[in-house]
Design a protein that fits this description.
Layout lengths: L1 H13 L17 H10 L8 H12 L19 H7 L14 H18 L7 H11 L1 H7 L6 H17 L12 H10 L21 H10 L9 H4 L3 E2 L11 E5 L8 E9 L2 E4 L8 E4 L5 E7 L1 H5 L6
Antiparallel strand pairs: 1-6, 2-3, 2-6, 3-4, 4-5
């Protein structure tokens, strides 16, 4: 109870603190293979920034350069072949325009964004929101509507990318504490001593057992926030406080590759004092563990908007 009360006291003291909105990328949020590309091309025009471009690529493909959608959108930036033919560029200067090559596709996504921003620059409202709406629905519809059109798919696309932008940006100031953090910790505390189960979601047929991301998912679901099932997607559920800024309720992540959030292999719930509650491995039980280990990757302060922007299926 003292731990839970402490979370609310900290939340109250910091409630007026502004959230981060930096234009640089958060540590490891972009896979190392694409980090330099996103950082460079994300500054191509004022309507975009590296975090926004990263959010768009994550939403489009999950960083998969080989994915094909049901609509035949292809590659890491999910260009339809007809759009690629008109707007794809030779980003790496090797003499071809390859829709499957991230070295061409990522620069092309940035270039196309900036082109769309130019089309809608005189439309009322936020130019970046209007640009994203044009990417989804076409510039003509944005111009005709005088802003983001009343199309649910387009409105959701804009909302999701702008929410994800926060999770890919390195905050420049302290980020707001989660009001649900205390409840998530309370849930996890009740599970202390429960045996680990790979793939465990805490269901009755599994004997109420969890793996690491199953526990964090259930803890936040108990307070009304639905997280993705896997740890490397949970990393994108909010902004990323620095180690010295951690608050109880933050998710803390661990990886053997500290340059790539897609390689995250473990997650726990921070409780203060350098410790987390986690489901560590087969043969162990849910317990308190220290977070200051060589494989500590970083942390996420979970927000409702951040969680809603993420896929909820594995």
């Amino acid at each position: 109870m003292l731990l839970v009360l402490g979370v609310y006291l900290v939340a109250g003291n910091l409630a007026g603190t502004a959230g981060g909105g930096a234009k640089t990328l958060a540590k490891g949020s972009v896979p190392a293979a694409y980090q330099a590309l996103v950082a460079r091309w994300g500054n191509l025009c004022p309507a975009i920034n590296p975090a926004l471009l990263a959010a768009q690529l994550y939403q489009e493909s999950g960083w998969d350069p080989d994915v094909v959608s049901h609509a035949d959108a292809r590659g890491i930036a999910q260009f339809i072949p007809g759009t690629w033919a008109a707007h794809g560029i030779d980003g790496d200067g090797d003499g071809d325009r390859d829709i499957w090559d991230p070295n061409d596709a990522i620069p092309s996504a940035a270039s196309y964004d900036c082109e769309l921003a130019g089309y809608v620059k005189d439309v009322p409202g936020d130019v970046t929101d209007n640009m994203l709406a044009a990417y989804n629905a076409g510039a003509y519809r944005v111009i005709q509507a005088g802003g983001v059109p009343a199309i649910s798919e387009t409105q959701n696309y804009v909302r999701i990318i702008r929410s994800l932008e926060t999770s890919f940006a390195a905050p420049t100031s302290r980020v707001d504490p989660s009001e649900q953090a205390a409840g998530a910790i309370a849930y996890a505390q009740k599970k202390l001593g429960t045996p680990y189960l790979w793939g465990g979601n805490g269901t009755a047929d599994q004997g109420g057992r969890f793996d690491c991301s199953g526990l964090t998912k259930a803890a936040y679901e108990s307070v009304g926030i639905k997280l993705p099932r896997v740890a490397n997607d949970q990393y994108n559920a909010g902004a990323h406080p620095r180690r010295e800024e951690l608050l109880p309720g933050d998710l803390v992540f661990f990886s053997d590759d500290l340059t790539n959030s897609r390689a995250i292999r473990h997650v726990g719930i921070y409780v203060g004092g350098g410790y987390m509650i986690d489901a560590p491995r087969p043969g162990a039980v849910i317990r308190f563990d220290p977070i200051d280990t060589p494989d500590y990757f970083g942390a996420t302060r979970v927000t409702e908007d951040g969680a809603k922007a993420l896929p909820t299926t594995a």
